Amino acid sequence: IDERDGELARTVFLGGKKVHGSLPPEIVAIHPPISLASGQKTATLWITVVPGFEAIQTVHAILTNEHDQATEYQGETTSFTRRELVLKPNYSLKRYEVEYDQFDTAKYWKIRYEAQSTEGDWSPLKVGYVLAEGAAIPTSVQAVLNNTVYHVGDNLRFDVTAQGTETVDMYAGFIFPKGQYYTLAYPTTFSQENTFQPYQKEMALLGESTFRVLNLTLPVIDRGEYQACALLTKPAADPKRQENWLSFHCQPLQVQ
Question: Scanning 86, 112, 180, 204, which has its CA 20 to 30 A from the CA of 25?
Answer without folding.
Answer: 204
